[in-house]
């Protein structure tokens, strides 16, 4: 009586036998996992690599020839190739943390840039105002003076300052709207 050799999980997977791939994972999983951890270091990367390796084992199982290699050698060879490919891919990938650190803008830089962008149309609109209204608006809006302080500073009557600021701001607003400037969120 001749006895047939014991079939390997790889041979079962090659035939497309139900449970063959699961048998491969059970038999060769520890081998592939240890190789992936050694090559990649990170558990997350190793887990992804192990999945890739077993997909490739499943696709390549039909090429397995027990006369040329052992089943473990065949799986290790596929794992090695996949891990080398993965390592090369990682080496080509730019370090995004380093790039994003260089691109980060501090909040003060952001505020300064945003202020310039927002101020440009206002400065353009300010230029259309007569000199007295321009002075009233600048003292009030830029320097934060109250209406009374603007009146005291310029020697103008309080009513003239109030109406000058109001008319100046309305004229600026109209000029900015006609120029296509719309406040964000408006």
Straight-line N-to-C gap = 91 Å
Structural class: mainly alpha
Rg estimate, integer Å: 37 Å
CATH class of the largest domain: Mainly Alpha
CATH topology name of the largest domain, in short, is: Rna Polymerase Sigma Factor, Chain: A
What is the succession of H and E elements? HHHHHHHHH
Uncertain spans: 182-186
* Domains, number: 2
The CATH architecture of the largest domain can be given as Orthogonal Bundle
Estimate what percentage of residues fall within beta strands: under 5%
Spell out the CATH superfamily of the largest domain: RNA polymerase sigma factor, region 2, helix turn helix motif
Tell me how many strands there are: 0
Count the DSSP helices. Answer: 9
Helix content: over 70%
| Overall average residue pLDDT | 80
Shape summary: rod-shaped
Major beta sheet summary: none
Summarize the structure.
By secondary structure, the protein is mainly α. The protein has two domains: 86 residues, RNA polymerase sigma factor, region 2, helix turn helix motif (Rna Polymerase Sigma Factor, Chain: A); 72 residues, Arc Repressor Mutant, subunit A, CATH 1.10.10.10.
